[in-house]
Write a sequence for this structure.
């Protein structure tokens, strides 16, 4: 049996961490078994469909750098891969389920169903003011005469599945083992085909997975409650279901399901913030899966060869933004300087530090600053905050930042005046010689070296945190360096 897996997003929202982790696990499983990875777009919810959400799917995976073998943009033997183009297929099997006695026509109006949802009195005896457990199966036992009457009146209808009233339904999950659900606890007679002729998720999902010969369904555990219903539909159609594997949840650090309140979850937002796709893929792969107890870094190619369901964890994965930043910083440090320069350039342009068509002077400055920031960046977007002082003047200074904790205003002014004299000969000496000169100055003034360098750092960069100071001075140049020192001295 060839391994065939699928990622089936609904274009009603943007691609987020949980969905892409599911796609990644499906992709890796397919590659590890020399199988096929399929993209299927579940776009039958016309009210919530978003064209830009559909485009976001393609943009997201183009950026991440892994792709499907079959899908809407790649012709395959099971096309079409857009569910909106498969309506006739779903209608055929829905009618087949009615004919076999496993489904039926329901003529209940939207108003009546809303009353049921709100707990209004009805034939099921649900007290007013309480939530109903669901549909009351009123149309399940309609006589042929009643059905003919409703049809003659032109009432709209849907097709509902007949969930057995007794017994239980069981299936095996590759991660969680045997799972059995009492049929009375399954959503009572859910809609399979809507009045507009479009299928619900449950019908389309089962039919497409069967017809596209999907061998394994790897999906989030939030779909676990639906699996018993899907198993019943497979049985009703006399089809063998694929193997199921419900992946561990992705939680925030507070133990709740990951959401916007924890921070960015949309994949393109991580791109905007300057994360590398390689780092994001590496980190996502470790959310609910591990190769061993020690190894953390994997290329996508390495993951393709070592991924297995046996190494999945039953416990949820916890998304740690700090850990992702740590991964990203490590990947940034592995980049060749030329590659890092090209990746940083868009952020410097976006922040107005570099022209759309950089001047030779700016290009030279870029080549000099990259080695200084490569060890300090955790995301690409941090670059402007670190090197902005090299491209534009500092608009204003925070006096508290200029004054070291153990010095007062007068002492700091004295430091700056002495530093100004030292800087006049800075470019005549090596960095080692300059360090000794500054040490001698600190010793002569009876203060620590850090209390000499801090006011200098803030005067030149506008911040207490910057790339290496001496290298920054050389990039800034003597004229700009002395000009900024003079300006700060005047502030005192």
């Amino acid at each position: 049996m060839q391994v065939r897996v699928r990622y089936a997003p609904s274009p009603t929202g943007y691609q987020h961490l949980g969905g892409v982790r599911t796609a990644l696990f499906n992709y890796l499983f397919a590659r590890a078994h020399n199988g096929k990875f399929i993209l299927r777009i579940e776009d039958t919810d016309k009210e919530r469909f978003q064209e830009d959400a559909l485009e976001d799917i393609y943009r997201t995976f183009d950026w991440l750098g892994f792709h499907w073998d079959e899908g809407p943009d790649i012709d395959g033997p099971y096309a079409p891969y857009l569910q909106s183009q498969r309506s006739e297929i779903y209608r055929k099997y829905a009618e087949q389920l009615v004919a076999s006695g496993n489904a039926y026509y329901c003529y209940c109006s939207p108003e009546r169903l809303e009353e049921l949802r709100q707990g209004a009195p009805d034939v099921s005896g649900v007290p007013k003011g309480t939530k109903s457990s669901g549909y009351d199966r009123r149309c399940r036992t309609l006589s042929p005469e009643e059905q003919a009457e409703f049809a003659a009146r032109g009432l709209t209808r849907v097709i509902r599945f007949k969930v057995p009233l007794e017994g239980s339904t069981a299936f095996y999950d590759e991660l969680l083992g045997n799972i059995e659900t009492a049929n009375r606890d399954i959503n009572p007679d859910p809609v399979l085909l809507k009045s507009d002729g479009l299928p619900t998720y449950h019908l389309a999902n089962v039919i497409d997975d069967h017809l596209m010969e999907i061998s394994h369904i790897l999906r989030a555990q939030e779909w676990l409650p639906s699996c018993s219903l899907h198993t019943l539909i497979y049985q009703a159609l006399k089809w063998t279901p694929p193997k199921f594997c419900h992946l561990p949840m992705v939680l925030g650090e507070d133990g709740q399901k990951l959401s916007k309140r924890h921070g960015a979850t949309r994949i393109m937002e991580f791109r905007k913030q300057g994360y590398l796709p390689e780092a994001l893929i590496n980190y996502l792969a470790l959310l609910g899966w591990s190769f061993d107890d020690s190894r953390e870094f994997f290329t996508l190619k390495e993951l393709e060869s070592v991924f297995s369901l046996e190494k999945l964890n039953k416990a949820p994965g916890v998304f740690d933004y700090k850990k992702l930043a740590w991964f990203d910083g490590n990947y940034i440090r592995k980049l060749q300087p030329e590659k890092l320069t090209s990746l940083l350039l868009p952020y410097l342009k976006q922040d107005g530090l570099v022209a759309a068509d950089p001047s030779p002077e700016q290009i030279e400055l870029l080549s000099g600053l990259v080695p200084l920031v490569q060890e300090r960046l955790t995301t690409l977007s941090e670059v402007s905050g670190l090197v902005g002082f090299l491209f534009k003047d500092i608009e204003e200074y925070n006096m508290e930042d200029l004054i070291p904790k153990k010095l007062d205003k007068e002492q700091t002014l004295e430091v700056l005046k002495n530093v100004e004299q030292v800087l006049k000969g800075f470019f005549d000496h090596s960095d080692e010689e300059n360090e000794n000169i500054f040490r001698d100055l600190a010793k002569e003034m009876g203060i620590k070296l850090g209390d000499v360098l801090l006011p200098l750092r803030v005067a030149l960069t506008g911040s207490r945190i910057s790339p290496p100071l001496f290298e920054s001075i050389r990039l800034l140049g003597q004229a700009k360096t002395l000009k900024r020192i003079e300006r700060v001295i005047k502030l005192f």
In short: Residues 337 and 370 are 7 Å apart (CA to CA). The chain has 20 helices and eleven strands. Residues 121-132 have pLDDT under 50 and may be disordered. The radius of gyration is 32 Å.
